[in-house]
Specification:
The complex is a heterodimer of chains A (about 375) and B (about 280).
Chain A (H helix, E strand, L loop, with lengths): L13 E2 L19 H10 L4 H12 L4 E6 L5 H8 L15 H5 L3 H9 L6 E4 L5 H14 L5 E8 L3 H9 L20 E2 L1 E7 L11 E10 L12 H14 L8 E3 L6 H15 L4 E3 L2 H4 L6 H15 L1 E2 L15 E2 L4 E2 L4 E8 L3 E9 L2
Parallel strand pairs in A: 1-5, 2-3, 2-4, 8-9, 8-13, 9-11
Antiparallel strand pairs in A: 4-6, 7-14, 10-12, 13-14
Helix pairs in contact in A: 1-5, 6-11, 8-9
Chain B lengths: L11 E11 L6 H9 L19 H6 L2 H17 L8 E4 L5 H12 L7 H6 L4 H10 L5 E5 L4 H16 L3 E7 L6 H4 L6 E8 L8 E5 L5 E2 L9 H9 L6 H8 L4 E8 L2 E9 L2
Parallel strand pairs in B: 2-3, 2-4
Antiparallel strand pairs in B: 1-5, 1-6, 4-5, 6-9, 7-9, 8-9
The chains are: A alpha/beta (about 375), B alpha+beta (about 280).
């Protein structure tokens, strides 16, 4: 939708979640009140997630369940708003402004841990737009070492002025809803999202519909702070590592959820990386045409989309894209496709040249 | 993925191959170890952060204090380890990121024109130091970037030790914080800049300074964190989150054996079994 967020005056589209302002945090957690943690709570209340975590906490013990959340800007909107209310004489921030539980990068993991009544290890991963893909990697490591038995992972990022005006300064925002892999693509649309997953050890008896985390791959471009490696070298390394860990070949992947931000250079670099590993036949799409780019929440959000693809046998077509860029030689889906899906790969890349790829599979 | 139950899980064991240190009155590990061991008096003084000469000139101009301190201690630790920076996966952890940059952005957004420079924006990401590190070192391997408020050091240590054990590779851990300018300083009163770099390896070498172990079943503990006897060092430890590592560094300096408990989250500390290697 055209951006009407807060007082923002930019010719762009945003994916704004309805009803965030109306969310009320439980009174004992009032100090955490900010848009980002309200969005987190809205996410935690969906689909029986909090109840599933409560059951896991009972099974493993509250101290044996970790909390690892990805975010890029956390609750910085609170600070942006507080800076408008500085004391005109001494410049002080308003007395009702709370830093630690709103603005600080950790606040969303701290809030999630408190809300769910968990007492195990916790941290935020904040590596721009790969943040909430990389939480799956960290959680998997914590479980594999025996430090914890289960983990709540997720990504939460909410609209704020820093990202809207920041991406605008880089000339990376589209004036319409973003069009990944389109010949005329001209930038991102910023969205907001909260997405969570509960990771547990594989039990002896598995539902056929259960979703397995099969592989993770992480790399760095070592190239530039805000532009991808032109050949997508780091991206390719991350995908290869995920395949290696999953003990799979490229032909075993049924669908790729692309990072696909819709900037000219990102999509071009990703297409080179994907085609170098997979050729041009693996069905793929970016779901950012539907969701916008939810930045630090994108990895977890797209992991959930991958889980839905596996459970429903549905490959999501990319929205908004009208005319595929012929220079990007991928099998990019413009329409939904129903077919059996056994293994999928999801890409998340970010500023600073950070890359993460995840592979998920169906149990049966 | 088959998982070990905590009681069967082997301890996470790492060897400390190199240390980098920078903070108020601490100019490097060689000087800092004397103060921590107690053989030299610790004198608090404003932290002096060197220019990151390993960065290309354009990036060097754009780098803020948070990047400079992280690169300085990372470089010192890697040099001491004798390992190749480009081959080392890294874990960066910080409670706050670049305070001055954040202040400038929030000031601009509260003004009428709301203009932010592209450099300010890309420096605002929490993984700025990690990005500049990978550019300067050519490291295309994994880099994790964490925050756990005042417990950020312990969070980074957990992540780094898990990576060392599972990947059987040496890992660079960098923890750093810089102070916010006013008015943010009033709500987040960090007094100065502090950084620590640690190269942790899965096997002992002739350079190993100490062995650190985490017992998965009991390392996350309610036991209180260790304090430092020296008042000025204790003030430093308790006032800058990255300096919560100091009891661990003191055990290396003094070559002690036993348990060091570090601050992590409220009611949950991290107990590290330490032993000297020399």
């Amino acid at each position: 939708m055209p951006c009407t967020f807060e007082t923002v005056d930019l010719p762009t589209f945003v994916g704004e979640v309805a009803g965030v302002d109306a969310v009320q945090l439980p009174a004992p957690l009032a100090a955490f009140d900010c848009r980002n943690n309200r969005l987190a709570l809205l996410g935690l209340l969906q689909d029986g997630f909090s109840e599933a975590v409560a059951a896991a906490s009972k099974t493993y013990g509250a101290q044996r369940v970790g909390v690892f959340i990805g975010t890029s800007t956390s609750g910085i909107l609170e600070t942006e708003l507080a800076y408008r209310r500085r004391d005109p004489v001494n410049g002080a921030l308003p007395a009702d402004f709370v830093y630690a539980t709103t603005h600080n990068t950790f606040s969303v993991a701290d809030f999630t841990r408190h809300y769910l009544g968990l007492s195990g290890p916790a941290f935020v991963v904040s590596s721009a737009c790969s943040s909430s893909a990389k939480v799956f990697a960290s959680a998997q490591r914590m479980m594999a070492t025996g430090l914890i038995d289960a983990a709540v992972v997720g990504g939460v990022d909410s609209l704020c002025l820093t990202t809207l005006y920041g991406f605008n300064s880089l000339g990376l925002m589209s004036t319409q809803a973003c069009r990944p892999f389109d010949f005329d693509r001209d930038g991102i649309s910023i969205g907001e999202a909260a997405a969570f997953a509960l990771l547990e050890p594989v039990p002896e008896q598995l539902d056929l519909d259960a979703v397995l985390l099969l592989g993770v791959g992480e790399s760095s471009d070592a190239h530039h702070m805000s532009s991808p490696h032109p050949e997508g070298l780091g991206a390719r390394m991350a995908m290869q590592q995920a395949l290696t860990m999953a003990e799979l070949g490229a032909a075993d992947i049924d669908y790729i959820n692309l990072h696909g931000t819709a900037t000219p250079s990102n999509d071009a670099a990703e297409a080179k990386a994907v085609s170098a590993l997979f050729g041009s036949t693996t069905p793929c799409s970016s779901t950012k045409g539907a969701t916008g780019h939810t930045l630090g929440a994108a990895g977890a959000l797209e992991a959930v989309i991958c889980a839905l693809a596996l459970q429903h046998g549905l490959l999501p077509g990319g929205l908004n894209t009208q005319q595929l860029d012929p220079a990007l030689a991928l099998n990019y889906l413009l329409n939904n496709r129903e077919q059996a899906v056994n293994r999928v790969l999801s890409n998340s890349f970010g500023f600073g040249g950070t890359n993460c790829s995840l592979i998920f599979g169906r149990a049966g | 993925m088959t998982l070990p139950s905590a009681l069967q899980a082997p301890p996470l064991t790492v060897y400390v191959e190199g240390i980098g240190l920078l903070g108020p009155g601490l100019s490097n590990w060689a000087q800092g170890r004397g103060a921590l061991e107690g053989t030299e008096a610790y004198q608090a003084a404003r932290c002096i952060v060197p220019l990151p000469m390993a960065l290309p000139a354009a990036e060097r101009r754009r780098a803020g204090t948070v990047v400079k301190v992280a690169l300085a201690v990372g470089q010192e630790a890697v040099t001491a380890s004798g390992l190749q920076a480009s081959a080392l996966p890294s874990v960066f952890t910080s409670s706050s990121g670049d305070g001055l940059n954040c202040h400038e952005i929030c000031s601009a957004l509260a003004s009428s024109d709301r203009l932010i420079s592209p450099t300010r924006f890309h420096n605002s990401v929490h993984n700025a130091a990690s990005g500049y590190w990978s550019i300067s070192s050519g490291a295309m391997v994994s880099s994790s970037v964490l925050c756990a408020f005042d417990g950020s050091f312990a969070a980074g240590l957990l992540e780094a030790m898990a990576q060392v054990m599972l990947e059987q590779t040496a890992v660079l851990l960098v923890a750093y914080d810089t102070d916010y300018p006013e008015p943010l300083r009033s709500v987040r009163p960090l007094p100065d800049t502090f950084g620590v770099g640690l190269v942790l390896a899965p096997r002992r070498s002739e350079r190993s300074l100490a062995q650190w172990r985490l017992a998965p079943a009991v390392c996350l503990t309610a036991a209180p964190a260790q304090r430092l006897e020296d008042d000025a060092l204790e003030r430093l430890r308790s006032s800058i989150p990255a300096a919560r590592c100091l009891p661990l560094l003191r055990s290396v300096a003094a070559q002690t054996q036993g348990e060091v408990v570090l601050d992590y989250l409220q009611g949950l500390q991290l107990a590290v079994q330490v032993a000297p290697c020399r």
